[in-house]
Amino acid sequence: MRNSDKILAMNIKLSLVSLMASISLCASAITVTSTPGNLGSVVGENIGETSLVVSGEMNAADFEFVAEKMTSLISLDLSGVSIVAYSGSPVLLGKTDYVANSIPAYALAGTKIESIMLPGSLTTIEEGAFSSSKIKSITIPSSVTTIGVGAFSNCDDLTSVTIPSTVSSLGSHAFVDCDKLATVELGVSIISASAFARCMSLNSVTALNLIEIGESAFSGCGALEEFAFASSLKTIGNSAFQASGLKTIDFSASESLDSIGAWAFAQCKSLTSAVMNDKTSKIGEGAFFDDASLVTFNMPLACTTAPNYIFKGNTSIDTANVLNHNITSIGDYALMDWKHVTTFTLPSSLAYIGSNAFEGWTSLSQLNAEGIVNEVPALGENVWNEVEQVNVTLNVAKDLANDFRAADQWKEFTINEVSSVEDILAEETTNRVRAYFVGYDLIVKADSEIAEVSIYDSSARQYAVETANGDEVVINTSDWDCHLYIVKVILADGSVATIKIAR
């Protein structure tokens, strides 16, 4: 046979194969009109079809037929169907009664169905209805108000979902372990417990009306690098974003946010910044535990407790605002393993430090406690474990110095007495000095030569000591998180001036 004849024969064969495939594809689709409980009768011998379009009415018995008999089904169009109530012999899970306008519990679980169009009158998708199915995409009608527990759990091929605002109840674990789910648009106000837990590909969540994010809602979502926290948000549950991929958190607009649960943002390895709202009053145990990359954090002013484990293992954190001056207690292991910190200031309201709270602070050289003026804070066990306390200067208020020297676990420090604000202001004063700010630069001028300028905050903590060889000193304050300063000026003739000034 000539080459040209061989090529012609091959082309004819390929055309026949293509034609047969087209005929087979056409034969794999079927359109039927059903009455309740009779879908099997109208489908008849066509149970091997891959595509089914149904109009008319269906009930739970018809869903059982689809799940058990039409095992090759890939596409199901129910947009023209009304789902009616069922009462009769046990079907599906052995139940005898099913309500109208509802996809029954586990009705299509584990099926090969990849795409489905749902009825416009549907109100409920019940528990596990599509769990472990091959669903790739789905549009949930605006008529739906309830999505049951685990309704789409373990749908490994589902890539995106839009949940309308009409859904008032989203069941726990609704989309848990959907490995390919990448995009979610939520109109709901409450995200239930573990709703999207371990959705490893989830990288985009749009949720504008949230009031509550439930326990473990996005835990283990490693690809979720950002999340826009709504201004309406009030509560974040335990472990809500634990081990997620979040890089930054910004609650500055979330003025209604009252509570952040235990371990909510723990083990977020990429988290570098958490901007808190000062109105948030409750932060749970271990909320930012082992966030090794976290640098920026500001403790809300409404918080009075740093709970157990909250910042344990945060080896990069900037200590400037991590505890506010209202903090009365630091919990067990709360600040453990901050090996990078050399200087730290304890809150002026502090009354208690929990067990092992400062364990592992091996670089600590100065601890400032001079703002504490009422009584020496009580301590748990092994608070300073691994700290070489004898090599650490503990600055304390003069009136409490002897109490610190007598207190267990405090007396091991090298204790230094610091003058109080009242002591500083009680120094001899003169009107020969003035001070003012130009931007962050503090300008100190006198009518004669200045010998020394000391800068303190309102807790009498010393920020700087500057010597001078003239009648003017310029001190840059941009690195200091302080607004009210006490400036003590010693002139060359020995006279002293003290000035309070706000930046």
Description:
With 503 residues, the protein is mainly beta. Among the domains are: 1-148, Leucine-rich repeat, LRR (right-handed beta-alpha superhelix) (Alpha-Beta Horseshoe); 328-418, Ribonuclease Inhibitor (Leucine-rich repeat, LRR (right-handed beta-alpha superhelix)); 423-502, Immunoglobulin-like (Sandwich). It has five helices and 35 strands. The protein has helices at 3-27, 39-43, 60-69, 401-406, 421-425; strands at 29-34, 51-58, 75-83, 86-91, 95-98, 102-103, 115-117, 124-125, 137-139, 146-147, 160-163, 169-170, 183-186, 190-191, 204-207, 212-213, 235-236, 248-250, 259-260, 273-275, 282-283, 296-297, 305-306, 329-330, 343-345, 352-353, 366-369, 378-379, 393-397, 414-418, 433-438, 441-456, 462-476, 484-491, 496-502. The strands form eight sheets. The protein has an eight-stranded parallel sheet. Strands 14-16-17-19-21 form a five-stranded parallel sheet, with no helix packed on it. A hairpin with a 4-residue loop joins β34 (484-491) and β35 (496-502). The chain is elongated, with a radius of gyration of 34 Å. Residues 1-27 have low confidence and may be disordered.
